[in-house]
């Protein structure tokens, strides 16, 4: 909103759709430099002010390291899937070799 506004229309539009407009945040550049390719969650704790269009907030950034480890889970899942396929192939070959009269 324009600095001289008395009605703060942008604040009212954001509030109508339950959206936050965060201003004057400190250390955002430091956060973005240190997270690399990780995800992060912002926890926002506003002070309740009756009939207000804004409030001071305590904002905490939590870095989510699980997104970084998804490649490890994919590798483990792929390993067990291949192990299952090898086991299944060995069973089928064994059944063909030692049970030739069995109907499949």
Explain what this protein looks like in three dimensions.
By secondary structure, this protein is α+β, with helices and mostly antiparallel strands. It folds into 2 domains: 1-65, no CATH class; 69-104. Helices cover 42% and strands 15% of the residues. A two-stranded antiparallel sheet has the order 1-2. The radius of gyration is 28 Å and the shape is elongated.
Task: Please outline what is shown here.
This protein is an alpha+beta fold and 104 residues long. The protein has helices at residues 9-16, 28-34, 70-98, and strands at residues 39-46, 57-64.
For the report, how would you describe the main beta sheet? 2 strands, antiparallel
Structural class: alpha+beta
Count of folded domains? 2
Q: Mean pLDDT across all residues, rounded? A: 80
Task: Identify the notable features of this structure and list them briefly.
single chain, about 100 residues, 2 domains, 2 strands, elongated
